[in-house]
Amino acid sequence: MSHDVHAQGDGNDTLAQASILPIGFANAILEASIGTEGDTDYYKFVAESGSTYVAETFNVPDNGFVNTSGLQLLNASGLEVEADASGTQGTGNVDARVVYKVKTAGTYYVKVIPANAFWTGIYSVRLLARFNEPGAAWDSTDDTEPNDVLPLAYDLRVGLDQWQTHHIAAESTYKTSGLDVDYYRFVAEAERTYVIETFNLAPTNFFRKTSLQVLDATGAVRASDVSGANGTRNVNARVVFKAQTADTYFISIASATGWTGQYSIRILPKFDEPSATWDASDDAEPNDIIELAYALGIGANQAQTHKIVDTTTYESDKLDQDFYQFNAQSGQTYVIETFDIPPTNFFRITGAQLLDATGTQLASDDLGQNGTGNVDARIVYRITTTGTYFILVNSPTGWIGQYSVRVCPDSCTRSVYLPFIRR
User: Fold this and answer.
1) Does 423 reside within a domain?
2) Using CB atoms within 10 A of its CB, is residue 131 exposed (0-12), middle (13-18) or buried (19+)?
3) Are residues 263 and 161 in the same domain?
4) Is 93 a residue whose pLDDT tops 60?
5) Predicted local distance difference test score (pLDDT) of residue 9
6) How many domains does the chain have?
């Protein structure tokens, strides 16, 4: 339950008069105020040793001052242990923010001060627990906010069906120092590869919109796509991350351009690792990179039919492309073909590439010029090392539409044997 407190006559102007500030998102004190110049407000809470707390002033009207509210965190003796006195740590709808890990259990104080000596006005204040500690919670009706700092990261599970949709929120009516940022956390296993993507962003006049970073528990960046330059098809930003150690890792999503709006986010495992799957109703997507390659059986009867998909519905940096993987034997020659493509005004439609496990190109028909009959692109290649190999199918002309793909030993043409008749 939220509490309304008003500073004029509220009696919390000294340490001894501090009001209780309960821990938790739903226990925020709303619309308190700095009523006169130089006024300060004190709040108190009981902290556990080793626990991390985030104190924030938020929903502070932007009245044109460079700074408005500030925060100080004091110990039981009234000594400052952490501060954002000038209100420069806020993002989203937060003005001032303090993050502190308590070393000694006891009573602590949150002191709201004017960051500008002449500022008076309304503010709200809250005290939040770290994501995995007692009292941690989010508002499911408010886009899982607040999750603007790593200690408040929201849980995101690995798997195609575990995607979530949220917003980079516009907070122009409130005083803040930075744009909205969303943090997520996930549990990774050692030596496993994960693909993190933002996707299904509606196109606007901004060319690249989301910035994506993967961080470890210390906040150090392990992988990033800060300009949304790695996306294909309906993906805006993409990071491929291999966890060296089993641990909780973090994802930050921000705006690369000042854009605000809705995005979806997912974490996908590598194609040969636990819980890897594809959406059968969505043309075997997502398989736009080698780590998400779709399995393709060997033989003409193992052919599959898919599509190069229109990307104009979503904000992305590159066109759709499809990866496939197959197991090849040393000494065997394989034929890779795209075929049965409906005729259009485009002369050459599909391109094909054969790659090894490192992503090195071994052979290609990039312009689809080797095919005959109903075959568009064709690659013939003799494998020298047994292992997993990859096929990339894309469009060199910007064409979108349906194609079929197959990989065959020696030839994809079915021989017809006629009996020899003696006369």
Assistant:
1) no
2) buried
3) yes
4) yes
5) 40
6) 3
